Records
---
Amino acid sequence: MTCPRTARLLRSAGPGKPAFRPEGNSSKKDWNPTPWMGGMKAWNFARDSVEWTPHEDLTIIQVRRVAKGCLSYIIGSGDEAVVIDASLDPEIYMDLAQDNRWTIRHVMDTHLHANYVSRSRELAEAAGADYLLYRGAKTEFPFTPLEDQEEITFGNTMVKALHTPGHTPRKPKLFDRRGSRVYRRHPVYRWVGRPDLKADRQQAMRKAEQLYDSLQKLLSLDDGMRVLPANIARSVRIGEPVIFATIGELSGSLDLLGLSKEQFLQEIVSRIPPTPANYRRSAA
């Protein structure tokens, strides 16, 4: 890797190891790295955010956990906001809302998952907001149920829920009023959401069929529709622009989206990787 001499280097280390001593190539080239205080545990929660204003009465802030590739959103209009898939300390979202003079009215998770510990319910309680999940979500706590095609109003706009099961049984996508953005779990940028987790083979095949139908529903949308993901398969580069892809870009770049239903089912089952070692414990 080549770095300009003016670049600032941050140095971290594994558990129990100091990050203060330059080692290897950094000392040979007279670099003076700044230690990342807290090591890898702190890096796990490192974040940045980027703001996008598609039009005058709508602002979207993409909040990124840079090490994990987890993305959440605070969407503001007028003096109100909604938060989608919160994965960081609730104070982070509340501070962003306060900076923009927004009151958080709704907080929602696009589905129950084990990608990370959701902070959405905690945020809703702290902000005095509704906590929304798709109707039928199996939980041991109360929530406000969402129906397919239901509109969630806030400020001068709204988002609409679209039921797209497959990766999980109850999983909505969320569109803004102008229909130009969709906020979805597990982007189809390089892959599609796996249907096998927490399912036997028969259930996985049934979920794969649902997944195919859901993807066809999304592909029927306008090619210019922007898809804003909540997970990406890499780290986030600090300061990079809003991460998104259009429906047209996705349909032209992922071979699975051009297959027939029978071909899709055969292909997706053959590509499924091993179940993560800690998944069953995390999803319990």
---
Amino acid sequence: TPGERAEMLLKLADALDQHADELAELESQNVGKPLGSAKDEMPVASDNIRFFAGAARVLEGKSAGEYMRGYSSWLRREPIGIVGGIAPWNYPLMMAVWKLAPALAAGNVPFSAAFATVPVLVMAVYLLIARKLGAFEAL
């Protein structure tokens, strides 16, 4: 449900806040970003996730209408399934958030390929999601 998706995204944002310092350290060590800049990015990322948590509950758009005489139109909001997010290697955390959060808010399963050049931070965030949200208990 939209409420469940919103709650899950809020938990993700909280987990990002709880691990912000270690994630910033990882980003700084992995790609050479100044530690201060990496730390500044963390609350922006969690705020974006909270934005999409709210958006999950208020999907906009006309739900029914009369566009032709004698016919009614409806929009049925259903997840489309697996969503592939393609992001460049630069600005990894926000690129991941901008792909991941809207897909989850809409009820889809986001997918990102684990390329050898993907910054470690993105993989760490995905592991954090799996551990904190119970996606994969074995991890």
---
Amino acid sequence: WGGVLATRTLGHPMQFQLKRVILFCNDIEKVAEFYEQKLGLKRVLTTNSLIDFDTGVAHLALHKAKGNVANQTKIAFYCEEVSKVRAEMIAKGIEMGKDPGDGPGVKTCDGKDPEGNVFQLSNRP
């Protein structure tokens, strides 16, 4: 990614931090049960369409698939200013999705690597 700056702390540049791996699931409760009971992961958030596990370094997020599209994976990188980093990536020729804009709340933007694998920029800690 050519050193695109994701966050800046006390004036020092910092590289992207992998914060989340997202699995798209048709039955998130069934998959969540597997990760809880078989692997011992601790559930930290549950909504109608998302179950999040804290694995220590990064989170494992189960997202409800739209349609029958299970077995898809997305990696999410943390950055404080999603719109700004998105613009830097576009300037480097990286295919990026819609600008989430400024303002409060969780901001995300998907991009694609040269083979079409999806990654996400997110300000979700």
---
Amino acid sequence: MSRPHVLATILFTAATLLIACGDERAELPATRSDTVMLEGDPHPIETQRVDAALYTLYVPSDMIVEQSASDEGEGVRVIANFGGSRTDSAFLHIFTPNDSASGLDDVRRLLLEPNGIIGSNGWKAEEMTPVRYAWAVESFRITGRRGSDIMGSASIGMHGGRGIIVVTVYPAEFADGMGPRVAMILESLQWRDTRTGLAREQTTTRPRRREIDRNQRLQL
């Protein structure tokens, strides 16, 4: 077999394997146009793709994305930048714990225990019934420190036995702008392994009602 023929065969095989493995990044556009409902009116908006280890999603162009990774897991924070003005107190944070803390009980501890996400930020959380999102196993309503107008929610979901924590907080005046944008972002989320979006996954652990209001060390 000639060298050109061998090279062509190798390239064809590599391309076939790439397609079989399903590299969705090669199929999803880097940007796309969308429409967000703000105060009851449709507004065109450009979104950009964000690639995380376990999923991809699209974020409006008037928000800033910051990604981080640690021994605990991976975080994607999306911060309001409406009108070019960055507001660090208005954000969506998606956290996917690593394999050693992936079950529902482990994920719940990361969110609610004394060194968890809720208390470390000085927030108060009360369980929401029904849950905030259809895919959520548990949801909690968030309020800020005394005298603060911070509001939001935290939800726990599961995918393939692994957990995901979704936290949204913002000053009350940002509610109209943050709500629709957060909904758009979460609706665009696509898991890499299944190419499906967020969905409710059955668990064997019964949720427990808890209220948290502590100062903690682990920061979100």
